[in-house]
């Protein structure tokens, strides 16, 4: 880019621009426009009634949530669990929505909406300024009109007082519940349990898998058991990812060489970070990726962590082949599956 032919002129232009900015007029505040509630007492009453109704909706939502929590109990089926969660969710939704909408409507229609400005000052104001600020806060409380609106005052206090029950009651009611952590240490995999494809339940033979195959696996249990609520909870802990690799690339410790079969390895699908399902497999790198936080495990090397926040390898399920050629578990996982919890040693 070429230099300006007359640099002095350029300096003059800059100086002129700066002086113009110095003379820029202060636009001041926009003209305040009165709202309907400011001009019409009936409109103010209507707005107050609307805010009260919204707080009442919150109160009803809280009460409804508490009733649902005690009255609608899961009965061991997926439908009952869904209905119970839906009732609890709707109750909490209306409890929160009522408070939120009421606060917004109250601020927009009843509280003072005059714009105010003040000059910038030091971070800590002088004592007299701080006293003035407290006076302004008291003035704001007076502007809200809550002191002269007893119905509104009762509605907001009741809604805000009841809403914490939606959180406190479920917490208190869980005290004294089942704290047996031994159930976290074991799954329903047992010696001789056949591996079945999830969700069809079809049994798997070693000959069904080629190098690079990836199969989502569950324990083979009777059909009637798979329809129970207990099965759903146990399946969540027992899900497995079955992968067949070239046996030449497997890195196995001496104690685990018998845990695989001809390059077929089985690992828990539950991420050791926070329990997300690990199911994204890269065939070329043999890496298994957790989609939640990108923890990455090397299936060819004991499912060790190669990237991400997970701190432990995925637990391995020892497998073998039975007399009919079906893949079966030798035993349960050698360690608890999933993320850490209290009293876990590793």
From TrEMBL:
This protein's UniProt keywords: 2Fe-2S, Cell membrane, Disulfide bond, Electron transport, Iron, Iron-sulfur, Membrane, Metal-binding, Oxidoreductase, Respiratory chain, Transmembrane, Transmembrane helix, Transport
Location of the region described as Disordered in the Swiss-Prot/TrEMBL record: 1-24
TM helices/strands, residue ranges: 51-72, 84-107, 151-172
PROSITE patterns named in the record: RIESKE
Protein name: Cytochrome bc1 complex Rieske iron-sulfur subunit
Topology in the lipid bilayer: Multi-pass membrane protein
NAD recorded as keyword: no
Record-level Gene Ontology MF annotations: 2 iron, 2 sulfur cluster binding; metal ion binding; monooxygenase activity; oxidoreductase activity, acting on paired donors, with incorporation or reduction of molecular oxygen
Subcellular location: Cell membrane
PANTHER family: CYTOCHROME B-C1 COMPLEX SUBUNIT RIESKE, MITOCHONDRIAL
Main location: membrane
Occurrences of domain Rieske (ranges): 237-328
Swiss-Prot/TrEMBL cofactor(s): [2Fe-2S] cluster
Keyword Ribonucleoprotein: no
Record family assignment: Belongs to the Rieske iron-sulfur protein family.
Job description of the protein: Iron-sulfur subunit of the cytochrome bc1 complex, an essential component of the respiratory electron transport chain required for ATP synthesis. The bc1 complex catalyzes the oxidation of menaquinol and the reduction of cytochrome c in the respiratory chain. The bc1 complex operates through a Q-cycle mechanism that couples electron transfer to generation of the proton gradient that drives ATP synthesis.
Natural source organism: Sanguibacter gelidistatuariae
Any single Gene Ontology cellular-component annotation: plasma membrane
Pfam families the record matches: QcrA_N, Rieske
């Amino acid at each position: 880019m070429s230099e300006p032919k007359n640099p002095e002129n350029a300096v003059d232009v800059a100086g002129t621009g700066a002086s113009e900015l110095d003379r820029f007029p202060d636009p001041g505040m926009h003209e305040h426009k009165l709202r309907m509630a400011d001009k019409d007492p009936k409109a103010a009453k209507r707005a107050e009634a609307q805010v009260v109704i919204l707080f009442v909706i919150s109160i009803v939502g809280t009460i409804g949530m508490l009733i649902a929590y005690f009255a609608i109990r899961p009965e061991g089926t997926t439908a009952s669990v869904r209905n119970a969660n839906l009732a609890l969710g709707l109750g909490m939704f209306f409890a929160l929505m009522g408070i939120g909408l009421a606060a917004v409507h109250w601020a927009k229609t009843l509280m003072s909406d005059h714009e105010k400005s003040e000059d910038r000052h030091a971070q800590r104001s002088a004592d007299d300024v701080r006293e003035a600020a407290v006076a302004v806060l008291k003035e704001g409380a007076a502007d809200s009109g809550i002191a002269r609106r007893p119905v509104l005052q009762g509605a907001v206090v009741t809604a805000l007082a009841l809403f914490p029950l939606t959180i406190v009651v479920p917490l208190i009611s869980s005290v004294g519940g089942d704290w047996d952590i031994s159930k976290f240490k074991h799954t329903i995999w047992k010696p001789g349990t056949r591996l079945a494809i999830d969700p069809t339940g079809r049994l798997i033979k070693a000959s069904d898998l080629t190098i690079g195959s990836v199969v989502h696996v569950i324990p083979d249990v009777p059909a009637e058991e798979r329809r129970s609520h207990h099965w759903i909870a146990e399946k969540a802990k027992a899900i497995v990812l079955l992968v067949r690799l070239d046996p030449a690339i497997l890195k196995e410790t001496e104690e685990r060489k018998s845990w695989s079969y001809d390059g077929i390895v089985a690992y828990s699908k539950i991420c050791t970070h926070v329990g997300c399902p690990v199911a994204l497999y890269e065939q070329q790198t043999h890496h298994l990726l957790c989609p939640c936080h990108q923890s990455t495990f090397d299936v060819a090397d004991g499912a060790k962590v190669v990237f991400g926040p997970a701190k432990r390898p995925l637990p391995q399920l020892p497998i073998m082949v039975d007399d009919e050629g079906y893949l079966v578990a030798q035993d349960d996982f050698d360690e608890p599956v999933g993320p850490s919890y209290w009293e876990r040693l590793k």
